[in-house]
Each structure stands twice: as structure tokens, then as C-alpha cells.
Amino acid sequence: MRLILGSGSPRRKEILAGLGILPDAITAADIDETPRKGELPRPYCERVTRAKLDAIPSDPDDIVLVADTTVALGRRILGKPEDAAQAAQFLLLLSGRRHNVITSLALRRGAQTWARTQITAVKMKRLSDDELNEYLCSNEWQGKAGGYAIQGRGGAFIPWIQGSYTGVMGLPAMETAQLLRAAGLRWGT
After folding, report:
1. pLDDT per residue over 156-183, tens digit each?
2. Burial group, residue 172, by CB count within 10 angstroms (0-12, 13-18, 19+)
């Protein structure tokens, strides 16, 4: 049995390592992550996760783990910003407000699949112009849903969360461990 992490995210690999799990292979799924017209954040995140799972080839006894993280401001999906201007737009929308970070994960072993969706409420402090500009200059926003990384400099903007810190990072540790055990993976023994 091999564990295939269907993500190129270094954060997901770090979270697995924190659990004492090292994937046998890492294969990022190449799919279209464009939201459909009128699509709501949770169904969008779950659809993208299923598409990633379907896109990763594996042998029947392999366990494939994929995830997707979406930042939702109400019904609005804030994906990965295309440039600094869009990152600024996202951060200004989130500034001083609560939002949800949705992480959907799925596993496949043979014909069986398991899935969970974890939602964390996050409060971002009101950002000053200096804070916003310094953060944009750091380029940490690149490749991050909503334009920030809670585990990096962006953590200085987050006074409060309700839910899973690792879920905001991109892979909720508790739910991931539960699904991996359900799929038959054993580690640390």
C-alpha cells in the first residue's frame, strides 16, 4: 500500500509530517479550478476536491489523498489571486471582517472513497495601509486562497479563529488522520 498525496502544497506535506506520515508519492492534480456561474463556496470546494481525486492515477491498493481550500466571504469565493492588485482587493474585502475557510478533503482506496469538509470561521483585523502594502511586497499572498497565509506573516492579521488552524493552512489534521485510519493506513507503530 502506498500513500499518494495529490497536492503539490508544501503545507499539506508539512501537516502530514506533523502527524508522523510521509507520503510515498506526491502528484499534483492538473484540473480546472474555475468556479461555475452561481456556484456557492462549499459545493465549489467539494466539486474541485472530487475532480482532483478523479485526476490522480493509482493502483487498487494505493491510498490517494487530495484537498482543496477555499476562502468564502458570504457567498463569494476568494480563490488564489492572479496578481498583487487582486490580492489587495481580497485583503481589503477581508479586512476587519469574519470569513470562512473551507477545506474539503477526500481519500480513495480502490473503489472506496471517503470525504470530509471542514469549515473554520476566521476574523481578520482591520488592516492599515502600511500593513497591506508590506504584506503585498512580501509576495506571501501568491498561491494562497484569499491572498493570505495564516501560518506566515498573514497570521499577524488573525486575532481569532473558530475551527481548525491546520484546516486554514490547507489540510485539517484531525479529519485527515480519521480518514487515513478509515482507509486502513497505519503509522507510528
Report:
1. 999 999 999 999 999 999 999 999 999 9
2. buried
Cα dihedral 124/127/131/132 (nearest 10) = 90
pTM for the whole structure? 0.94
Residues 62 and 114: their CA atoms lie apart, in Å, by 14
Catalytic residue among 32, 61, 62, 68: 68
Strand partners, 66: 106
Residue extents of the structural domains in the chain: 3-182
Which three three-digit cell numbers place residue 184?
486502513
Task: Provide mean pLDDT across the span 2-9.
Answer: 94
Check: CATH 3.30.1510.10 for 3-182?
Answer: no
DSSP 141-169: TTT-GGG--TTTGGGGG--EEES-HHHHH
Q: Would you call 68 a catalytic residue per the annotation?
A: yes
